[in-house]
Amino acid sequence: MSVRGxxxxxxxxxxxxxxxxxxxxxxxxxxLEHASGRVxxxxxGTGLNLVRYPAGAAExxxxxxxxxxxxxxxxxxxxxxxxxxxxDASAEALPFEDASFDxxxxxxxxxxxxxxxxxxGELRRVLKPGGRLLFLEHVRAEDPRLxxxxxxxxxxxxxxxxGCNCNRDTLAAxxxxxxxxxxxxxxxxxxxPPWTRxxxxxxxxx
Length: 206
Fold this sequence. Notes:
Helices cover 37% and strands 25% of the residues. It is an alpha/beta fold. The longest helix has 30 residues, at 3-32. It is globular and about 45 Å long.
């Protein structure tokens, strides 16, 4: 368990509180409203999505590779009505059989995985044909000026933000992985620094 991981787990919910109150909690609910059947959430963190899952989510599998985060996640599961379990796994190496999930969920995760193409390939592999990927991610800006600033700031931001990249074109990566984007909305991450403010919210079919 890393010192940085323990600190992040301790502070994460507090750091996100302002954004959650300013609309991010509602975005989570909108992102998850189509979750159904057997659901896989990657990088579940401290479990801020848990109370947003609809009744259609019959079973929930949560991956979280950081032990301190996983410990907080396990605590939040107590008292939840969900049938759920936590698995220690990275998004790039999911220990599940092919075509074993109906829904996959990624919220503010693909910015920080080491290999987004591999992670998306794994998500596509474990989804059943016709299964959905639900995503809510901060991404590279459409505005060229802001995108250039993201490129300049990214090395520093990645170092201070525990591997988070502010300039990834995640929508293009989703499409390149073979997903058919069904719906996408571009919006803004309230209370976030300008270089992490552009967001995409949507769903894609395997």
